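Now for our target.
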Amino acid sequence: MTKRRTQRAAVVGVAEHSNSAVLVTIANDGELLDRRHIELTRGLPTHPYHHEGSWAVGRYLNSAWARPISLADAVALVERVRESAARGARESLEALAATVPVPIANITIRVCPQLPPTTEERITDTRAANVADSVMYRESLATAAEARGWSVHWYDRERVFRDAAVALGREDIDTVLHAMGRSIGPPWQAKHKLAAAAALAITQCR
């Protein structure tokens, strides 16, 4: 009888912050394959919705760092940043895929809140403007991953460590994360652990 072999594949866990992110890549057998920091944009404002967009509609104008900008110019700036982030995401995932020794099948990114559909609406809605920059960067990574044929998963930051423990059949994953950090060395900070937990939560996905 021929023993069935499971193809080895990998999952990428993402912990984003502003226009940068930590990517932790783990094989579906639990081996840590890669850890890296990426920046999706360079030489552009990192928070065009929250900063320039807010100035355009009159928010924070008394702040020392505010400057005049029209709503049309703010919308155009957001689109330039979005295009740059899309390019940075494509290049970053291409570099990762070229480095990791097994095929990447999945990526998991922090779930995005629902926002108004247009850039202008996101700027003018105060709640949306506070989170729209982060959503833009997460969506750029998701789109780049889908273009590579990877399955995109969305995790809840409040539940992901528990989800990872359930996936591994453990009470918690503290020991697993500690061992990973020792194996790869510093830096192994909260954001790395978050990305690793997100990846571990779906390591059994095919």
Summary: Residues 10-200 form a domain with the Nucleotidyltransferase; domain 5 fold (CATH 3.30.420). Residues 71-99 form the longest helix (29 residues). Confidence is low (pLDDT under 50) at residues 1-5.
